[in-house]
Amino acid sequence: MSPRTAALLVAAAALGGCVLPPDEDPVQIKLNDIDGRMQRIERVVANQSLVDLDQRMQQLQADLRAMRGRVEELENELAGLRKQQRDLYADLDKRLSAGAAMSPRADGGFGAAGVPGSAGAAGRGAPSSASEQAAYDAAFAQLKGGNYPGAIAGFRQFLAVYPSSALIDNANYWLGEAYYVTRDYPSALAAFQDVLTRSPDSRKAPDALLKLGFTQQEMKRTREARATLTEVTQRYPETEAAKLAAERLRRLPATAR
Known about the structure:
By secondary structure, the chain is mainly α. The protein folds into 2 domains: 21-79; 86-96 and 122-251, Serine Threonine Protein Phosphatase 5, Tetratricopeptide repeat, CATH 1.25.40. It is built from 10 helices and no strands. It has helices at 3-16, 26-101, 119-122, 130-144, 148-161, 168-181, 185-198, 205-218, 222-235, 240-251. The radius of gyration is 44 Å and the shape is elongated.
């Protein structure tokens, strides 16, 4: 073997056993690149998740604040409704007490107050029978006991069976009160109006006109309510109805529809 050939064989052997440094290995370079990209993707995903989470938290906090505000509004509305309901019951209880004291009897007199009665005061004259008085008293007892549906049913039946009764105005008035306290304002309006239409000079007329104004206000018919309550103060001065009408007028909105 010539010296040249021997040298070539030695060089080939040396090259065959040579290993490239890791930073020059194409495969390793590719793996490092992939690894770097994966790390960058993971960081982006992590950051985006945190942004989304923060946005969701902010939205939830905003929703919670809105819900708390709404709860406060509802609590205020409920408190107002409860006060209004207490006022309604107090007013009705006061009128029931007065009504029981002045309740017309079959003998033409009145109840516990012992005030002598007359045909004009009662409405149309004395009740015609004990059954008529009993029917009226039964409905009135339901009203005093707080059974408003029972009172409504009782007074409606009384009006149907005894349309010419001396107690017709009283029955219509208390029917209106029962409707009013249960917030059936259209029916209450009709009952109070019926008292005024049938017997404008009835003993119940001032209260019926007053409650007609109250009912109109509850129905958001403010202009009509103002006119009705003003009429109470003008037609029935120096009465309790006029006093209550004046108080309600002061509380009505300045501008009426």
